[in-house]
Structures are given as structure tokens and as C-alpha cells.
Specification:
By secondary structure, the protein is α+β, with helices and mostly antiparallel strands. 35% of the residues lie in helices and 21% in strands. The strands form 5 sheets. Strands 13, 14, 15, 16, 17, 18 and 19 form a 7-stranded antiparallel β-sheet that branches. Strands 2-12-11-3-9-10 form a 6-stranded mixed β-sheet. Bound molecules: 2-(butylsulfanyl)adenosine.
Amino acid sequence: MSDIQKEIDQLTDMLLSWQHDYYIEARPSATDAEYDRAFDRLRILEEENPRFRRPDSPTLRVGSDLSSDLPEVSHTVPVLSLDKAYTAEEVISWAGKTSANIDASLDIVVEEKIDGASIVLYYENGILTRGVTRGNGSVGNDVTHNIRTIPSIPLRLSEAVDIAVRGEIYLPLEAFSRINAEQEIPYANPRNLAAGTLRRKKSSEAAGVPLNIFIYEGFFPEGAARNFSGHHELLGFLRHLGFRVNPRLGFFGPRADRDISLEGFDIVSGPLKDLGTYVDSMTALRQNLGYEIDGLVIKVDELDVRDRLGYTGHHPRWAIAYKFDSPEAVSTVIAVDVQVGRTGRITPVARIEPVLIGGSTVSNVTLHNQQYIDLLELAPGDQVAVSKRGDVIPAVERVIEKGDTSLPVWQMPESCPSCGSVLNQRGAHLFCENRRCPDQVQGRINFFVGRDQMDIDNLGSETAAVLVREGKIRGAEDLYTLKAEDLEGLPGFGEKKIALILKGIEASKSRPYQRVLASLGIPDLGQKAAELLIEAGYGNIDSLLAAAEAGETEKLSEIHGMGEKTAASILESMRDPENLRQISLLRDAGLNFEAEEESGENGLAAIFAGQVWCVTGSFEAFKPRSLAMEEVKKRGGRAVGSITGSVTHLLAGEGAGSKLAKAEKLGITVVNEAEFLKILEET
Ligand code: IVH
């Protein structure tokens, strides 16, 4: 075998195994950059030596996410992939060459390249009939059952058209971190979690993951073509049909001189020479999007020019993908440490030789849990590849070279490094169950005083650490009984500093209830959940404690945005004796355990805040009955026209009928006109 044939053979095997890990296991074993480099190398070698190309070469397909577990269907539109560029210069030179090819100047549209799972949605007569993964480009997996659970995908379009659209399903970063923290083996990135979710057998499981979509191409069946002059107009039409289209667009070329503004879009436009600057500015913007993009897609706008340019075997000539480089660096693991979080969760962290990745120095990288370490087969001394995926959280991608081959894979300790208690496995993680564990105590206090919680001035984590170490405080509640003489004589605590600390603590007593509630460090009860609870009528701690005592999980989980698991977990914590003790002490100290009643601009007290009123029948004082609805809204309530699970009150007028019966069946509070007028009068 010649050297070239050998290399082709090796590259083919390696790429096939990477494809399997990526598409079938949804757990990549190579980075995008590594994959692309190997793929490009293989393509060049095969082009120069076609006789060595293997019949199973990955270059013969667009890449496949096919899995035999889900029904396979053929695509009726070509589902091609894109050629790639890695620098802004390559993009500009591509635009130049393309324009020379057709001997005319081009208009270019620039879209974000969403890093998610590619999907094709088929609509007949405006009704969603099928959602199919890209698969190998001609056959994909039918995932319609999961597609239907995504709220931003319309089931019916605004016009009864036959159309197929392509888009990218993705998971917002915030949801990714939240869900990934609960995974047995964390997903490497949001794309894998999105792709994994799409392939679930049970759509109820997919429904729990807040997937979203951007649609970026549309295809009409032959003969039904529409007359759009350009891609941007097609995007406008897709939006009109009800699709979620990314509003951020770049538009460069001669037509940009004229007005190309499009309703609902945020278009940056300019002459072609501005394209490079735009690429740079989008590269900087990608950090702030709330979802991951792995590049930009540069497309010819004019649809007739697209037709003239046509396709190569596996990509259109009228578009190119500009891929951001995903920063990666090589470093050595000095040691693996374990951290004890405020909830007692034990997290292994790799201390690595500091390296510069994507503009910042990284020296600590989370390893999540034992399973993650087992997958990496990692031990101290190993040389590792560290990436900053999505430019946010650094991750160990893989071991490049073992340091000491005689060392076993690193193992979690059996006891807590802070207090020595035996650790307990709960789900994917180990926990220290000792509430008095010094690291946990410290963690809870740091959390409580932190900027996003009680935000206590002049009391940072270092000062708090001294107070814990010196035995001055054992919980946040102890802060409020501290006196100046307790602090005198502590190392570094002068008179002035002491006065400032006490002033900060005193001032924190006026933080609103929502903050106080979220600062208790109760699992699942952050600012968002606190806000939802208050809005839903749990405006003080007593109402919440009563709900906990009565076990009102079901009622709580009806609050829009709060799941059943969260509701159950919050209520369970509200019955925990330690938490009850802390709440009572903090309340004695004078913290806010009641939300201030919002009185709207109209000066009326928000007596209906958190309530949902359905109004039905006819009234003496309210003609039309929408006037009664106005009264509800003016006082902070929501008014609706039908009985659903979220309705708390029914205002029943003359001839209330079926709604009254339904409300009674559901146990909804029913109020008649006289009672309603009385409530309004009294407030
Ligand atoms: S256009 C023929 N536009 O990137 C048109 N693709 O290789 C091909 N992608 O498989 C696609 N955002 O899954 C296009 N705004 C965008 C995109 C986008 C993400 C994905 C898509 C495709 C891959 C390109």
C-alpha cells in the first residue's frame, strides 16, 4: 500500500468513527476544527488520487445523523451542506470570485450560523405534516412527534401554502446550563443536547426541554414558485407565514443603497467592501446572543443569480459558511481538587498549567463528576486539550498524552474534604449531607451576601470567610445579631471597617421580599421562581409555608413557568426544620418577608395581583362586561374569557351557564356581581 493510500485509509476510518460518535451517540470525540481539517485533507487527497477513494468514504455523503431507531423518510427537497471559509479574507475572495463568475455585481445576505440541529419542516395546505432531520441529505429521521412540542414552530401557517422550510433547532444557553447540571453525563454543548432531545422516543421528554428554532430557507413545490426578487424578501414572507426567522441580517452590495428595510428585521447594510467589518463585528457580538452560533452564512440574495450559479455535488455555489475558530489550547493537569458547594454538592476541578484560550487565561476547569472523568480517562499529569466552547465555560475535551501511564484514572474521595463526612451519591453527583460542613456554611453565606442576592455592602466573601473561621457566624441569620464588640480585635478589622460592615448589614434589611426569598439558597428557588410565586399570589412567606404544610404541589405547578419538580422541591424545602428555623430568625431580625403591594399608576391597590378572573354572563353595573374585566386589570389581576386550569376566580353574572358549572366542578371561587362590587368598594 502506498503512503497516500494508507493516509486515505486512516483518515477514512477516523472520520467514520468520529461521525458515529457525533451523530449516533450525540457525544463528539473530536472538535469541529479537527473534524473539518481531517475532512478537508481527505477530500484533497481523494481528488488527487480518485482510485484510492473508499466506497464508504465520508466525503461521499453530506454527513449523516441517521439512526435506525426512528422511522426513515426521504426528503423531497435537496438538503445540502455548505462549503466553508475560515477567515474574513476567504469570504471576501469568495464573493469576488462568485461575482466574476456571473459577470455582475452581487447582493449578499449574511445570516448567523446557528449551532444546533438541522431540520426540514414540511407543510401541506399550511398544516405541519412532518419534521425530518437532515440525515444523510436524501433520507432523514422522522421526528414530527418531538417537533410538535416546540412552541415556536407553527402547526398552521397564516396562508394555506405547500412549502418545505429548513431551519436550525437550538437550545438557549441559559436552559442548557440549567438542564445540563442535572445530567448523569453532561453534554459537551447545547447542540448535542438539542440533537439528543430531537431523537427522544417519547415526546413528553422532549417537551421538558425548551428548544427553539430559526428558519432560514424555504422551498415551494415545482410549479408553485413565488416571485421574490431576493432571499431577504423570502425571509420576510416566511416571517409573515408565522415562522420564527432570525431578525439579525447583514445586507451588502449595490442594492443596499436603496432602502431594503424589512418589517420585523434588524438589517445592517452597506457596500460590499463593508462585509469584512461586519464579519468582525458579528464575531464580537456572538458572546451576547444567549444562544450559540458557530459562524456566519453568506448567501447570494438574488434568487435568479442563485439558479445560474447552481450546485456542486454537495453544496450550493451561491452560499458559503464562515466558521469561527473554536479556541482550544493544550495544557497539563497539575492536580484534581474537589469543591464543596453550598448545597453540599461535590465537584471535581482540574487545576491546569495556566494557558491563554480565546483571550483569557484559564487555570481551573470543571470536570463535573466521576462519570465525566471516567469518559476522559483522566489522571493528574496528563496532557489535555482544553477548549472554550461557545466562548464561555472552559472544558477538558480529551487527553492528548498520558503523563504517568501507571497512574489509575482519578477517583472521587469517599469523604468530604471539608468536614470528613461520608459522601452520598444522589443522581449524577456526590453530596456531603452535613449542613454544618464548614465549606457549605461558607458557601451559603457567600451566596446570601452576594451581589445578585442580598448584596450586602462592605461584606465580601473574604470578610465573610474570616467571620466563619473565627466562629462569629454559623449562618446568614447570625449576621443580624452581630455587634461592634463581637468584631473588635479580629485581624484587619479596624473601627472604621467594623462600622461599615454593620451599616451594610443594617441596610440589607430593606431588600424586597423577592430578594430575601431567593437569597435563602433553597434549591430551585432563585430570583425567577421567587418572582413567579409572588406574581401568582404567594406574596408573603406565610402563604408559602401554608402551601408547604398543605402539600399544594399541584396548585404551585400550575403557575405558568414552574414545573412540577420545581414546585415539589420548593415545598419540600419549606418544610425542612433547618430552613424554618432560619426563616424565623431572619424574620425576627426584621427582614422583609412580605411583598409590597403593587399599586398601579391608577393609585388602586393591587388586590387582584396573581389572580386570574374569568368574567361571564351579563351585569347591571358593567355594560358591556369588559368593563368588569377592566376593574380586575386595574387592580393587578388578569382577566380572561374562558375557564382554564389557571383561572382562580369566576365573576358570574346573569345567565352564566356552562362556565359556571365548569368552574364549580373545578373548585374555582365564584363571585356574583354584588359581592364583586363590595370588594371594589372596600379597597
Ligand atoms: S443555509 C443550501 N443558513 O449549517 C443551504 N444553514 O453546512 C444550506 N445552518 O446544515 C444551509 N444556520 O444546518 C444555512 N442561517 C443558516 C444556518 C445554516 C445554521 C446550518 C445548517 C447546515 C449547516 C451548513
